[in-house]
Design goal:
Chain lengths: 258, 426
């Protein structure tokens, strides 16, 4: 087992040398600027919009904890509040570098904490146009990169690069990202499905600066070009570094719903 | 009177500052049951009931929180199903280094499998809310927890005992014989000397999770003694029928139990292997009961949004009893379809087949949201058996003769039902 891990590590190292291109460097810099917040908490309102414009609303709280070192897990806890019939349902994720994430779902009706497979990456999240993959923590080394050039998007000069997921469970063959040159904020993403068709577009809107350090979008807008459906995720009450502990992301916390 | 009013006012004043912070949820459900046949004890086929519950929670001080919930049901037919009871109601306190404690009325869940959970023992079942026993009553207890992240140790001191709830003589689904819970006998009367205890440890090793548990106390699942007078037995023996207005019933008996439980799950990609086994030691019998199998996920089925989860489990129970256990050598096959639509619709279908006699139980559950705060649900169970169609008389005669009832599902074959439910959430 140990030997196997060393082989994988060697492979990963050579992979990152091979992809040591400008696209990879931009992703690393964007990741560096995004990290270091320690922990965060935000309220999310998710609006599902169908072809005819009908809207459905979901609200949830998202807590995140950054792993301190490379071997520590990043952890996240999503608690649902609306619609009321799923209030109290919670999803706990521990990301494990280089391996499948560990995930548990809390079912409040029977007080059950159920381990679930994290390979459901391409599945729809809560009936929205986002998949679990879109909302999971993303490691720079989970992709291969290709730099495509620079382009202007809504008056901002952006780096444009392509990344291809290494994970076979991914729902995408590639993603094209627009990252602004001033602050390395992702502005737009085009998603390509397994037929290599551009099926979804994500737009990140209303970036605000928190703690003089962290840029976060106030809205994610995902359009599905195949179905005509859209999902808007609006973030509010962002809080960073409020001292959340590892124990706030334990399985036994799920039952308390706090 | 005035004194208690002022006490109440003082109490309200005390809680007023928190009142705004308290989070609450509530649900009101109308249930309509339909039974496909008339039963042996009851010939009605339709039943309506109204169920309401409320749950409040708050964090009054740092590292302290409480939960308070009530559930009530009004049942058209069965007075024993009509109740108002405390749901979860407890205070909890977090300490340093992963320790926490809570005390009050608590519901816990142990287990990993789907068809049933042999190790799940702390909370009593409401069999009048479904024969699968999934609906539980809350258990008064003191629960200490240490959670290090990868390992969890729970200690439980269970400070009271609750009898299992069965359909009353006017309720369904029921056995062909009345269960007289009022006369239930306990190995020791519940009291301070008779606090039950339990411990459970859980360990996480990558994608392998396991748990070990031990329970010592009164068995949650009673055995039954047949209550019949000599005169009644004599008449049954000579005429084959019990006298009118007889007092024959099954009387629950709760014995002392030691149970050791083991649970494990292991992920291989989209497949989760899992199993749970309990060794149960009672005064008259020792036996094993368990479920082993797997769960397999198929996501975004054929490019749709539909997720399918398939379940296969083998159920065993080595208990040697007059009425054989329901799942003693059975295979469970099930599927859950999550449509991933805006209405969070799902359908669950399960089929348990007895490998010895081909008797089977079909379970269905489906739900969809029809308005923002309203869900519509359908649930039901069908009991399919080619065994004898027992009457009260023939079941009593079989039990007196100590004949083994090796097709237990036959006892329920006229009790198959579906329930349609409409719920409003706040």
């Amino acid at each position: 087992m140990k030997r196997w891990k060393i082989i994988v590590a060697t492979l990963a190292a050579s992979a990152s040398i091979a992809s040591a291109n400008q696209g990879y460097d931009i992703a690393v810099e964007a990741d560096r600027r995004h990290s270091g917040y320690g922990d965060s908490e935000a309220e999310v309102v998710m609006t599902l919009i169908n072809k005819t414009g009908d809207e459905d609303r979901r609200t949830l709280t998202v807590k995140e904890l950054e792993g301190g070192t490379a071997t520590d897990n990043d952890k996240s806890l999503m608690s649902f509040n609306h619609p009321r019939d799923i209030a109290g349902t919670a999803l706990l994720t521990w990301s494990v570098p280089g391996e499948d994430d560990l995930q548990w779902l809390y079912l409040p009706a029977i007080k059950r904490v159920k381990a679930i497979s994290s390979s459901n990456r391409s599945g729809a999240f809560m009936g929205s146009e986002f998949t679990f993959e879109d909302l999971s923590p993303q490691d720079v080394d989970d992709y291969e990169y290709e730099y495509l050039g620079e382009k202007e998007l809504n008056g901002e000069l952006c780096f444009v690069y392509e990344r291809r997921p290494k994970d076979r469970d991914s729902g995408y063959t590639k993603e094209v990202l627009w990252v602004d040159q001033s602050e390395y904020r992702t502005r737009q993403v085009h998603f390509y499905d397994h037929k290599n068709e551009h099926t979804k577009t994500l737009t990140l809107i209303g970036y605000e600066l928190y703690n003089d350090e962290f840029w976060r979008p106030s809205e994610l807008f995902m359009e599905n070009h195949e179905t005509g459906r859209k999902t808007r995720m609006a973030f509010s009450n962002y809080q960073f570094g409020q001292g959340l502990r590892d124990s706030d992301f334990n399985r036994s916390q799920l039952r308390y719903g706090r | 009177m005035a004194a208690s009013d002022s006490k109440l006012a003082f109490l309200l004043l005390l809680v007023a500052p928190y009142a705004l912070a308290v989070e609450g949820t509530a649900v009101l459900t109308v249930e309509q049951d339909y039974f496909f046949d008339t039963g042996e004890l009851n010939d009605w086929q339709y039943n309506t009931s109204l169920v309401g519950s409320i749950r409040l929670r708050d964090d009054p001080f740092p590292d302290n929180s409480w939960v308070f919930g009530l559930t009530g049901r009004v049942d058209q037919r069965d007075s024993e199903r009509t109740h108002l009871s405390i749901d979860e109601a407890y205070w909890q306190r977090w300490f340093q280094n992963g320790f926490s404690g809570r005390a009050g009325y608590i519901e816990t869940f142990w287990g990993v499998t789907e068809a049933s959970n042999p190790v799940n023992i702390l909370n009593q079942s409401r069999m009048n809310d479904g024969l699968d026993g999934e609906v539980k009553t809350t258990q008064p207890m003191i629960n200490l927890t240490h959670d290090s992240g990868v390992s969890i140790i729970n200690l439980y001191l269970l400070t009271d005992f609750q009898d299992r709830q069965f359909a009353g003589k006017d309720g369904r689904p029921s056995l062909p014989l009345v269960i007289d819970s009022d006369e239930a006998r306990h190995a020791e009367e519940p009291g301070f000397e008779q606090w039950d205890v339990a411990i459970r440890g859980q360990w996480l090793l990558g994608s392998f999770e396991m748990a070990l548990s031990y329970f010592h106390g009164l068995n949650r699942e009673p055995d039954f003694d047949l209550r019949i007078s000599n005169a009644e037995a004599q008449e049954l023996a000579t005429t084959g029928e019990l006298p009118e207005g007889n007092n024959v019933a099954l009387v629950p008996r709760y014995d002392q139990l030691n149970q050791v439980g083991f649970e494990a799950t292991y992920f291989v990609g989209d497949t989760q292997w899992k199993g749970e086994v309990a060794y149960r030691d009672l005064p008259d019998s020792q036996y094993w009961r368990g479920n082993v199998g797997f769960e397999h996920g198929i996501y975004s089925l054929i490019d749709t949004r539909v997720d399918v989860t398939l379940y296969v489990e083998y159920l065993f129970d080595t208990q040697d009893s007059v009425i054989e256990p329901l799942f003693d050598n059975d295979v469970f096959v099930g599927a859950r379809l999550d449509l991933n639509d805006v209405n969070s619709s799902f359908i669950e279908l399960g089929w348990v087949v007895d490998a010895d006699d081909d008797d089977s139980l079909i379970d269905i559950e489906a739900e969809t949201r029809i308005l923002e705060n309203v869900t519509l649900g359908l649930s039901g169970q069908a009991y399919l058996s080619d065994g004898p169609d027992y009457t009260t008389d023939s079941l009593a005669a079989a039990l007196i003769a100590n004949n083994t009832i090796d097709q237990p599902l036959a006892l329920y074959q006229r009790e198959s039902y579906v329930t349609l439910s409409l719920s409003y959430y706040w």
